[in-house]
Amino acid sequence: MVDFLGALGASLLLIAIVGVHILEEVAKGLRRFFNLEWFRTGDEDFPITKRKAILIDQVGLFVGLALLALLGIKWSFLTWIAIGFITADLIQHGIFSIARRKYTPGVATSLLYLIYVSYVMARSEFGGLNERALIAMALGAAALIINYILAARKVQKRRASQKPEPAAA
């Protein structure tokens, strides 16, 4: 049984945290970090273009996670998808910072994600952590992982096309 008021509060809190997290990523230059430092493409607009960053990674992500959180008040499975996504995102930001041994855009507010996920898993606003919740979390995490894989493949394709042809003997 889902506690409506508890679920509403937890959903609104999730929306606020996602908004703050996206603002940190934008203000601290996540797209630039991702393109120039993580993938080392030498191109500030590749693999993540300014347009993709705004439409998909910022506005689209915020609206999508907000809808999942709000609809999750009625259908808790949807909120668990959002929780899976942010869990994967906080792990991703941790990996970025550990690998670079420095602050990376988004890692500070990932701490809010960690606190939120820990809180929700310890309570039952969304029906508790069960098999359905774990499946939903896996779906949310898969969305983030697929986005990363697509970006990595774009980089690999570009690098492969830029390799000089071997000299003929």
Tell me what the structure shows.
- The N and C termini lie far apart (73 Å).
- Helix content is 76%, strand content 0%.
- The chain is an all-alpha fold and 169 residues long.
- It has helices at residues 4-27, 30-38, 50-71, 76-100, 107-122, 131-162.
- It has one domain (4-155).
- The mean pLDDT is 91.
Strands, helices and their partners?
Blueprint: H1 4-27, H2 30-38, H3 50-71, H4 76-100, H5 107-122, H6 131-162
Helix pairs in contact: 1-3, 1-5, 3-4, 4-5, 4-6
Can you summarize this structure?
With 169 residues, this protein is an all-alpha fold. The chain has helices at 4-27, 30-38, 50-71, 76-100, 107-122, 131-162.
Task: Give structural attributes.
single chain, 169 residues, mainly alpha, 6 helices, 0% strand, elongated
For the residues shown, what is the average pLDDT? 91
CA(first)-CA(last) distance: 73 Å
The largest β sheet comes out as: none
- Structural class by helix and strand composition: mainly alpha
Topology pattern, helix = H, strand = E: HHHHHH
**Number of strand elements:** 0
Radius of gyration: 18 Å
Work out the helicity level. over 70%
Count of discrete domains: 1
- The shape is elongated
Low-confidence stretches: none
Proportion of residues in extended strands: under 5%
Q: How many H/I helices?
A: 6
